[in-house]
Amino acid sequence: MSEMTPREIVEPQGEDTEFVFFSGKGGVGKSTASCATAQWLAKEGYDTLLVTTDPAPNLSDIFGQSIGHAVTSIDDVPNLSAIEIDPDEAAEEYRQRTLEPMRQLLDDEQIKTVEEQLDSPCIEEIAAFDQFVEFMDEPEHDVVVFDTAPTGHTIRLMELPSGWNEELEDGGATCIGPAASLEDQKEQYENAIQTLEDDAQTSFVFVGKPEDAAINEIERSSETLAELGISTDLVVVNGYLPEAVCQDPFFEDKREREQEILEDVESSFAEQPIATYPLQPGEITGADLLTDVSEVLYQDADPTVDVESSTPAETTEIQASETDTAAVMEELRPQEDTRYLFFTGKGGVGKSTIAATSATVLAEEGYDTLIVTTDPASHLQDVFGTEVGHEPTAVGIEGLEAARIDQERALEEYKIRMLEQVEQSFDTDDSEADVETVKAQVKEELDSPCAEEMAALEKFVGYFDDDEHDVVVFDTAPTGHTLRLLELPSDWKGFMDLGSLTKEASETGAKYDRVIETMRDPTKSSFIFVMYPEYTPMMEAWRAAEDLRNQVDIETSLVAVNYLLPDEYGTNAFFESRRQQQQAYLEEIGDRFDVPMLLAPLQRDEPTGIADLRNFGSELFPAQESTADDDRPEIEIQ
């Protein structure tokens, strides 16, 4: 166990500005922990700035005042100011800063080319990091708290390959935009990364719920950062069930499992301090609740769980049977051709379980079904209770196979193909030295995060050649960001542009176009967003759905709302308050998405194995009839 306390980790220890980064998946309480920390530091007398780059920010809701895309003083909290960075505005500001010095030097056609380069999907990540750099270069604050830390992917994006130096001098293009735009920032980025690696000035805090998926994600992200020289300093486990409110076997069992997970966390992070905070009957907003959080985290106080004052007057019932099974199944069943189903959502929302259960139901109806996961932290093999490999394998149900794209293996396969294409692209008259020089340059490029995305994307695209299955289910759909890699400007030149290299040299451009058109066709493909009924998961799903619509013209087909509290358990005031909150968000989800809704009740244990998946399927899809071909078995789910 670390000798440092959580308080010592977040408090400034010297004269230099302290930077505290909170990281974790959406909906785990990251904003709550960062807001409570920032407020506590301000009350301790430190000049504190709170910065969020979360695409679904809720700082305004937590503090009860408008904040937005400008540094704003927090009412009634001296020494505290905050800003909610709008990713779209930040990206546009970055583009304009980049273009401005070029307008006097380039003609309209050249400016148009640069604008195309700046439309790269990676620009949003660069712009976000640019904002980090800006606030890490402000010495007037004692401490800057970041709600949402840069990921290992983003940090690696900023470690520009040395082969780009020549490209910078030639004014060429890279996979993240015009090289000339990176020259000025390069030194700033390097300084920022050095600060991130400095344990005396920077602290990384991971926040997660007491759930296997959330903790696995923390372990994986922590390992990735460690490889980049950035250590994890504190782990906060948020939202465990208070013992006093677990008054029936259902929630007693869930609490027992949470406590086992907490023990695992203490074992996995034996070198770091662990802080915990319980689930509250409502959302954490306002100074009083934030004070309670911070005193528990940093002053060893006992938490206050105020149930009675927030108990609604009326009883609320949420029934999974309200699912319109016919409408939902219409979006899942194949019509004439293979149907492609894309289940997407942030980590911890249960998308693998929902996807696997849907695949099980379709296979039971008689459709030959394949489920594929592209999630590097996938627990699909745990869901099925059997090994799931890189190639499709049977999982114990007739007509159902599963596969897990091994990203390392996919990347190695991709590297081999790309280097072969380099050799083939040279005429026989070219010298061997030229080929080797370019291969060396491309090898370095193939170690960038862009290459990882392209490798996974190419493997994903390969499944659209599938003619053996009636349904292909993807657990974790590609985002609008990733899909835009398929539409990179075709006039980018040189081997710096991996997207162009892939589209031209490997001659897969036409296939990419067919895949995008298939994904846009609602008779062939369905996008299903999985979430649970709370603010952050809902807003992150909504933003991702809007990105798909605006960036690649793909519409959402279904939403799956998971972890709905069962009516028959948790009948006390605590869960009644939570239930009414869920109902309010359920209504807002319906209004925002306006598509059929699949409602999934909270389970005592996560379904694992075929029997569990069949039972869960009967709850998800009550009493529906099959419309499979006549020669298929008619199966009614009981």
From TrEMBL:
Keyword tRNA-binding on entry: no
Domain ArsA/GET3 Anion-transporting ATPase-like: 17-299, 338-498, 502-620
UniProt keyword Protein biosynthesis present: no
Entry keywords, A to Z: Plasmid
Pfam family of the protein (one): ArsA_ATPase
Matches recorded under InterPro entries: Ars_ATPase, ArsA/GET3_ATPase-like, ATPase_ArsA/GET3, P-loop_NTPase
SUPFAM superfamilies documented for this protein: P-loop containing nucleoside triphosphate hydrolases (SSF52540)
GO MF annotation: an example: ATP binding
Top-rank taxon, per record: Archaea
UniProt xrefs under NCBIfam families: ArsA_halo, GET3_arsA_TRC40
Protein family (similarity comment): Belongs to the arsA ATPase family.
Protein name: Arsenic-transporting ATPase
Organism: Natronorubrum bangense
Lineage: Archaea, Methanobacteriati, Methanobacteriota, Stenosarchaea group, Halobacteria
